[in-house]
Write a structure and sequence with these properties.
The complex is a heterodimer. Chain A has three helices and no strands. Chain A is mainly α. In chain B, strands 1, 2, 3, 4 and 7 form a five-stranded mixed β-sheet that branches. Chain B is extended. The chains are: A mainly alpha, B alpha+beta. Chains A and B meet through helix 1 and helix 2 of A and strand 2, helix 10 and helix 19 of B.
Chain lengths: 111, 580
């Protein structure tokens, strides 16, 4: 093969490579652009959602306002604030009558 | 072998036959060098590009791709950070709002526009809106700060020429409950009072929320009970503080009259005054706690000592007499339990002015409280500390301090004698801020027992509640009107701690100028108007914070449920007067 022939082939090869790379680059660029558009849309959606969550959190806090709940419970449920006397433990319960009076105890043998 | 230079030139015409070109020898040499230099420069550039490519693809370890994947940092939702309570409940937040404006030139039918707008915006001033839409301006506001629902409704009308402008509005979901602690912002979103002002720099920028030590449930409870007490006694004002006795954290702080921070324009400026930190009061007998504590701690007296309280003391133009006069010799516990001014004054004289001031200073009663609020008042102390001052300060006259200071000092008395400045910022769990040992643990233990006696046998009986052992001290001070003291205008207070054997919380209630009611038999003293409020607060606060009540029967046995059944037939447990 002559020097000239080699050079021709090399040129052609590089030309093909350049065109190929350009095409790949072109498509990648558009893919990236599409992805970035999608990202922007998603970011905007996330921001909207976060803002909605923020507003809902404030509303949740407002709806759970103890004074509001107190008023609602009073008008609709007839509930009263907890009295310390209503809190008990098992130790505070009276003993079972059967344990005090063996005669009244139910038979344990199943008869 | 041909000359390489010539063969190079031969290729130029592509025929392989040497052209007859005459080239000067030096020029050929120069051309060759230039080619080499160019080739090297290109080769180097490609090498650099190749090197960088390898570096990016092989050696960066995906750092860039990770950065690309995470995207831009999320923008803050609000430009001002939230304020939350100790459990993370939102107390103040900035909400996005939309403000409605219009370009009158784009509105085809102003009359219909206003009619349809008014249907969804009840607050719209129709006449003004119509006048604005008919004006020749190119920008007119129609309605500020729409709620998201209203904005949606306006959007649905589909009226041409209307636009929204985004803005932010500071909102307080719990309204009045913690108004004085939180404070306010101005229209530009700058803090002008309370936490909003003190932490303005931290709040602007929309970073992490500021976490207060306030517990909204306790705050709400204190606010409600204070408001009820003010209603019942027609008091001119009130202040209340609930303090964690061990850490100095403020769980609740309220001041009445109050204001709605969501409608700052509609509140009289006087109601923004925080009585708990900015109001100074002569606290009266609650100071006897400190007098007794310092007398015991300095070894001036012991529990078995006492003073003759038969005769009022006359000093210059003052007469020190007892309100609940016993007219006999009183032991140190009796002086506190029956709140004897004469006894306290004599005890303070024995302690001495120097020691008295030293103890008061270390209890934080001589200088402004170090709390994270801009509204803090310095106490009013005697300019010259004469003998009469020593005596009057002993029972809380001639010295005016803020309610918060009294609560913090009481916490020091009951918590083992350690003074910690009150704070409204939540301390991390298990972290107890450094404090100063003011009293010995022994004195503190004795004082706790004496405070329980005040509630079981003394002036504070109305603070006694079933389930929790409260200890405390009443205070009733006559207000200075003009130059002298008025018998009618009182500042009535009660400071309590519970459970008194190992206090967790200090509760202080101060009523400004209460009047007696039928229920109190016309009496407006601390023991009658303030002590029951503290009692009610304790009985609600205990279950709220998870303190198990004592299984003693509830008063008024008929109402007691099964859960409060007591096997011993209902005898109330008595706090032992002897201490350990």
């Amino acid at each position: 093969m002559t020097v000239t022939g080699t050079l021709r082939h090399t040129t052609a090869l590089f030309l093909l490579l350049a065109i190929g790379v350009a095409l790949v680059l072109f498509s990648v660029k558009y893919q990236v652009q599409d992805l970035e558009e999608e990202l922007t849309t998603l970011d905007a959606a996330i921001h909207r959602d976060r803002e909605a969550i923020h507003v809902l959190e404030a509303e949740w806090s407002h709806l759970n306002d103890p004074e509001r709940l107190h008023a609602l419970a009073e008008t609709h449920l007839g509930l009263e604030p907890l009295h310390p006397g209503q809190v008990g433990t098992f130790d505070g319960l009276p003993a079972r009558p059967s344990l005090l009076d063996p005669a009244a105890a139910p038979r344990e043998d199943g008869q | 072998m041909r000359d390489p230079q010539l063969s190079f030139l031969e290729t130029l015409d592509g025929t392989g036959t040497a052209s007859r070109v005459t080239v000067p020898d030096g020029a050929l040499e120069t051309g060759r060098t230039r080619l080499w230099v160019t080739a090297i420069v290109f080769a180097l550039s490609f090498l650099i590009v190749a090197g960088r490519l390898i570096d990016l693809t092989v050696f960066t370890d995906g750092a860039l791709s990770a950065a690309a994947r995470s995207g831009p940092a999320p923008a803050a939702v609000a430009s001002r950070a939230d304020i939350v309570d100790r459990n993370g409940v939102i107390l103040a937040t900035s909400l996005p709002t939309a403000s409605l404006y219009a370009d009158p030139g784009d509105v085809p039918d102003p009359e219909q526009t206003v009619t349809r707008l008014a249907a969804v915006l009840p607050g719209l001033d129709r006449r003004r809106a119509l006048a604005r839409l008919r004006s020749s301006a190119s920008f007119v506001w129609l309605h500020r700060n729409l709620t998201p629902k209203q904005q949606h409704a306006v959007n649905r009308l589909g009226l041409p020429g209307l636009q929204f402008k985004r803005s932010e509005r500071r909102t307080y979901p719990h309204g009045r409950a913690a108004a004085h602690v939180l404070g306010l912002t101005d229209v530009d979103g700058r803090g002008i009072a309370g936490v909003e002002r003190f932490f303005d720099r931290m709040l602007t920028g929309g970073g992490a929320p500021v976490r207060l030590s306030i517990d909204l449930r306790v705050q709400s409870l204190l606010h409600r009970e204070l408001a009820a007490a003010v209603d019942a006694t027609s008091a001119g004002g009130a202040a209340g503080v609930v303090l964690d006795a061990r850490t100095g954290e403020v769980l609740a702080m309220a001041s009445l009259p109050d204001f709605d921070p969501n409608r700052p324009a509609e509140t009289p400026p006087a109601s923004r005054f925080n009585r708990a930190t900015k109001g100074v009061y002569e606290m009266g007998s609650t100071f006897k706690l400190f007098t007794t504590a310092m007398a015991l701690d300095s070894g001036t007296v012991s529990l078995t000592d006492g003073y003759d309280a038969r005769q009022p003391i006359r000093v210059s133009r003052f007469t020190i007499a007892d309100f609940h006069a016993k007219k006999r010799w009183l032991s140190v516990p009796e002086i506190l339990v029956h709140s004897s001014n004469i006894g306290a004054a004599k005890m303070a004289l024995d302690v001495g002015a120097e020691t008295q001031q030293d103890y008061l200073r270390r209890l934080g009663l001589m200088s402004a409280a170090h709390v994270e609020l801009p509204e803090v008042a310095a106490p009013l102390t005697p300019s010259r500390w004469r003998e009469v001052n020593t005596m009057t300060v002993a029972f809380g006259h001639g010295i005016a301090v803020t309610p918060l200071q009294v609560a913090a000092a009481t916490a020091s008395v009951v918590n083992g004698g350690v003074h910690r400045p009150a704070t409204i910022i939540r301390q991390p769990d298990g972290v107890v801020p450094a404090g100063v040992q003011v009293l010995t643990a022994d004195t503190s233990r004795t004082m706790r027992g004496l405070m329980r006696l005040v509630v079981t046998h003394g002036t504070g009986r109305n603070a006694d509640v079933a389930g929790y052992r409260v200890g405390g001290k009443t205070g009733t001070a006559e207000k200075q009107v003009g130059g002298g003291y008025s018998g009618d205008a009182l500042v009535s207070s009660f400071v309590g701690a519970f459970p008194i054997e190992a206090p967790r919380y200090v509760v202080l209630v101060v009523l400004d100028e209460p009047t007696g009611t039928e229920e109190t038999g016309g009496r407006a003293t601390g023991g009658w108007v303030a002590a029951p409020v503290v009692g009610r607060i304790v009985s609600r606060l205990g279950p709220l914070v998870g303190l198990a009540p004592d299984p003693a029967p509830a008063p008024g046995g008929g109402k007691a449920r099964l859960a409060s059944y007591a096997p011993d037939g209902g005898a109330a447990r008595e706090w032992p007067v002897a201490f350990e």
